[in-house]
Amino acid sequence: MPAPPPAPDPGSGRGRGAHQSASGAGAADTVASGVSGRIGGVVLDHVALAVERWADAWPRYAVELGGNWTSGGFNVGFAPAQLRYANGARIEILAPWEAAANPFLRRFLDQHGPGPHHMTFKVPDLIEALGVARAGGYSPVGVDVSHPEWMEAFIHPRQASGIVVQLAQASVAWESAAPEGFPTRRRTPAAAIVRATHAVADLTSALALFHDLLGGRLLRRATSPDGAWACVDLSWPGPPILRLVAPADPPSPGPVGGQPAGGGGTGHALAAWLAGRPGRLHHLVVACSDPAAVAGAAPARAVPGWVASDDGPAWVVEPDRTLGTRLVVVATPTDAPGRGEAVAADRYPGPVHEVAT
Question: Which residue range is the domain that position 230 belongs to?
């Protein structure tokens, strides 16, 4: 059984500038306008959510959504636990552990509370990937190539549209037995994690990273029915889809957060929610049977990055009901019982196209 990834030195990797908040220092504020190359063989491995304790996440992400334990362990400063869902997508639950020796996660929780923390992209050759990233104007931080079984680096939120992006090379598949107390009674079949919707202030800058550098395949472009926001869907081998959504300029008036406060478009809501940040992970799209029964879910009326005519009816669980991460819950397609929405690209085949407003 492979051991957890080795603990990085407290002065590097996960413990240094790699995991500062978007308002912290440690990386250039801007990226060169052109990316000179593209990293090959990239896979979007998982989305990580920060919590105080693993057990806080089990009722929602294990019991209600049916996440199956795949791996977990304890490291200096953090304890990662990965859950796998019906379509193969994985969520990492990240809790502090021995924080005094490596306080990056403790600082994050103290400053922001629980919620989305980072996205991990695995690459076949980290050294080569770092060269391509630097040639494109990016400044990777927290580089640790001292352990051949797990090498990593990070792109700071200021250069990654507001979220930590981890680049990792793993030589072994990490698996471990579920810990004592992990729920045995879970949703069957499990839900599917269909899409991560990341709100950004500058769509062009976000595409420079996620498409030009990291090689996400363009599935489609779309605008909201009211023209208040635009989005682009990107995919890598396997789920989930990454949807980048940006407010129109200037944004139209509308609600704050996910639900309307009295009419208007969603562009102003999105700009207000970003609050001057380069980006924030807005929500995860989850497909399951009987989405209306998910605890805390309310019918979706106006959610940036979600269009009923394309995505179908949905229910929203706001961040204060789900450890800081908004969930948009949709029904498992009836033509694919039991498997969830295996790859959301099935719904958006072919080349990129514009969707009329």
Answer: 192-347
The tens digit of pLDDT for each residue in 47-58 reads 999 999 999 999
Cβ atoms of residues 163 and 198 within 8 Å:
yes
pLDDT at 345 over 60: no
Neighbours of 263 (CB within 10 A): 9
8 Å CB contact between 195 and 245: no
DSSP 8-state secondary structure symbol assigned to residue 58: I
Is there a contact between 72 and 179 (Cβ–Cβ < 8 Å)? Answer: yes
Query: Helix %, strand %, coil % for the chain, to 5?
Result: 20, 30, 50
What Rg, from alpha-carbon coordinates, does the chain have?
19
- pTM above threshold 0.85: no
Buried/exposed 107-130: b ≥16 CB within 10 Å, e otherwise: bbbeeeebbbbbbbbbbeebeebb
The 10s digit of each residue's pLDDT in 215-247 is 999 999 999 888 999 999 999 998 999 999 999
Number of domains in the chain: 2
What distance in Å separates the CA atoms of residue 354 and residue 357, rounded to the nearest whole number? 9
Are 158 and 196 in the same domain? no
Q: Is 47 helix (H, G, I), strand (E, B) or coil?
A: strand
Task: Give per-residue pLDDT as tens, 291-334.
Answer: 999 999 999 988 999 888 777 899 999 999 999 999 999 998 75
